[in-house]
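[stage:ingest] chain + small molecule (S-adenosylmethionine)
[stage:ingest] validated
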Amino acid sequence: MTIKETLLWARTELKESCERPQYEAELLLAYHLKKDRMYLITHDADVVENLDLFKETVARRKANEPYEYIVGSASFYDIHLAVEEGVLIPRPETEILIDLTAKIIQEKQIRQIAEIGVGTGAISIVLARKFPELKIVATDICEAPLRVARKNINTFGLNHQITLRQSNLIDEVDEPIELLVSNPPYIAEDFILKSNVVDYEPKEALFGGRVGDELLKQIIVDAKERKIPYLACEMGYDQKEPLTSFVKEIGVESIQFYKDLAGFDRGFIIKFPGT
Ligand SMILES: C[S@@+](CC[C@H](N)C(=O)[O-])C[C@H]1O[C@@H](n2cnc3c(N)ncnc32)[C@H](O)[C@@H]1O
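[stage:predict] done
[stage:export] tokens:
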């Protein structure tokens, strides 16, 4: 089949499972041919080599496997990160958490931070690139994210800035920390997610407990006990109220919630008293 015919076929295959079947067909064929999308237009009469392999790729996407797992890469902030099954695909809303965290690091001249739940390394890598003097200890409880984060940290040459550690939350972090940042699992156990998420992405990265905010609350308690001045976290759209009550009970100097681009509550910055 020619490129033109193959695209038509792939678009029809992806019609049910993808919101933008033509675009996804083009992305997958460009990936298969190791070319950019413009090449498909300028060479539409060329014959597609290894067509069976391309058909297998399309079948994976048709079965809702995320594009990022198929191609092994995700675009995030101003970089591309290696990603694979077992590690959460970084989401655009997490870029807001990074910008708010960066503002505090800049204003308070912070030099040492920690991240809980490193995943691909998205947050730590972007922050380390913004602040070449910043040191980061980044933890994860699972091995796959630590392995993928290591690969991404090596790609960007950031070994001297980011230390990875397998740990539950910050249990294994002894360094004095000025700011703690986290995009932890915060979804309730019984929340119904789309197939591309629940069937492919790791449960450890998604579900925060029966209610969903259990890990977030533990992170707040840990940060307070460890006398870490600032805590910046992503959270679920419905967690503002329970977390407001919770911080009133445990006592913080201030909590500021922020919204994502769709207008949903998406996270908070806490300043602890006496720090
Ligand atoms: C939502 S993902 C965030 C990944 C990455 N920081 C990002 O924003 O794309 C949460 C991460 O936390 C890790 N995690 C889950 N429970 C943890 C715990 N108790 N301690 C440390 N990490 C944990 C998961 O393995 C997962 O990599």
